[in-house]
Amino acid sequence: MYKKMKKWFEFIAFKSLKQLNRDDIEDFVRFCQKPNKSWIGVKKATRFIEKDGLRISNPDWRPFVVTISKLAYRKGNVQIANILNFHMVL
């Protein structure tokens, strides 16, 4: 959660953690309930990858990930996942 909050303050609120106030926390909670689509991935990805011997940011990593449970998948609720995936791309 700290990483998400830190990213939110840096890229959305344009504030440092030292500038944090109660209204900012409430805004962050609302953001977590409905994050920007660009912050949502449809698959789990590691935050960093190794390339040419260097550890770099993984472009596929997102702070939030839409998933479907194995049970729902087994029960045939794949349509839900497909709908979610479709909306995440828009």
What does this structure look like?
There is one protein chain. With about 90 residues, the protein is an alpha+beta fold. It has two domains: about 1-35, no CATH class; about 35-90, no CATH class. It is built from four helices and four strands. The strands form two sheets. The protein has a two-stranded parallel sheet. The protein has a two-stranded antiparallel ribbon with strand order 2-3. A hairpin with a 2-residue loop joins strand 2 and strand 3 (about 55).
Which whole number gives the mean pLDDT? 81
Helix count? 4
Unreliably modeled segments: 86-90
**Shape category:** flat
Order of helices and strands: HHEEEEHH
How are the strands of the biggest sheet laid out side by side?
1-4
Strand content: 5-15%
Main sheet specs: 2 strands, parallel
Beta-strand segment tally: 4
Roughly how much helix do the residues carry, as a percent range?
Answer: 40-55%
Number of domains: 2
Structural class: alpha+beta
Q: If you compute it from the alpha carbons, what radius of gyration comes out, rounded to the nearest whole angstrom?
A: 16 Å
Our measurement of the CA-to-CA distance between the termini, rounded to an integer number of angstroms, reads: 25 Å
